Amino acid sequence: MKVFRYKKELKNYIESLKNQGKSIGFVPTMGALHQGHLALVKNSLKDNDKTVVSIFVNPTQFDNPDDLKKYPRTFKTDMSLLKELSPEIIIFYPDAEDFYDGKIQSEHFDFDGLENEMEGKHRPGHFDGVGTVVKKLFEVVQPDKAYFGEKDFQQLQIIKKLVEKHHLPIKIIPIPIYREPDGLAMSSRNRRLTQHHRAAAPFIYQVLKQSAVLFEKENIDTIKKFVENTIDAHAYLKLEYFEIADEQTLKPATQKITGNKYRGFIVVYAGEIRLIDNIELISK
Ligand code: PAF
User: Fold this and answer.
1) Domains and CATH numbers, the chain
2) CB under 6 Å to ligand 1: residues?
3) Could you identify which of 129, 144, 224, 240 might form a hypothetical disulfide with 267, taking C-beta atoms 3.0 to 4.6 angstroms apart as the criterion?
4) Is the pLDDT of residue 262 over 80?
């Protein structure tokens, strides 16, 4: 398998592939790969001549230093998982100094307000960090298509905005959330859950599904109160926020407007671990 550590070497290699007329698919990750990541990679392998997967725990998007320190790093296992899918996959495993040209800091972005909602409020600087790393990765990889999971739905909308605002010739492909058999959304952070918290965590999706049923008839305020009270009553879970927002603008909804698309967005702490999930809400 080809593994690149330096921007320039990968960029040159990509240029040679492009000169041969090859299409490039790209899956950016922070490693600790699970089936959700592999679903993105499988889609890219299917759609493109060549697939690049980046593995980089990007320091600029962490607002919590402890989370950055404890983020799982499993490069060897990640490599074997990717190799099993296809030995043709190109891995970009950047050296942080080289990647950031010695200055590990974020650029500031205006994503037309998408960055100020939900995760933007709770994780200051997070989307500047994500925008910075993804823009730089796109410059090196120059993909035709890039794959992002819907679990981080706000991130997905922000990346679409990044591409639109910078006129990048890249198609962003959203991939539905991949869940454990018990409903817990797959996340690299799940492996850090204690046994009790792991057992409690599927409750988050159960409550989200109940909120989707309520959305058919109830008003938004009632649904929000239901989710808040139900999660708060759970001994092992602590709600950070539940929001019902418009899918496009991500602005909180106060009432349902026919024709608009809504989602329920939730963040819950299971012990020390911050879990994020969302669900599509359809009004009958
Ligand atoms: O979703 C992630 O894993 C990260 O935010 C990303 C897109 C790889 C940027 O570091």
Assistant:
1) 2-175 (3.40.50.620), 188-279 (3.30.1300.10)
2) 28-30, 58, 61, 130, 133-134, 152, 155
3) 240
4) yes
Closest-CA residue, ligand 1 atom 8, reads 29
Closest CA relative to residue 54, chosen from 77, 26, 75: 26
Are 109 and 127 a contacting pair, CB within 8 Å?
yes
Nearest residue by C-alpha to atom 1 in ligand 1: 29
By alpha-carbon position, which residue is closest to atom 9 of ligand 1?
130
Q: Which residue do the tokens 């299971």 mark?
A: 270
Q: Maximum CA pair distance of the chain?
A: 59
Say whether 34 sits in a helix, a strand or coil.
Answer: coil
Reported as a single tens digit per residue, the pLDDT across 155-199 is: 999 999 999 999 999 999 999 999 999 999 999 999 999 999 999
167 is an active site residue: no
Give the whole-angstrom CA distance, residue 144 versus residue 136.
Answer: 15
Q: The pTM is what?
A: 0.97
Q: In degrees rounded to 5, what are phi and psi of residue 50?
A: -130, 145
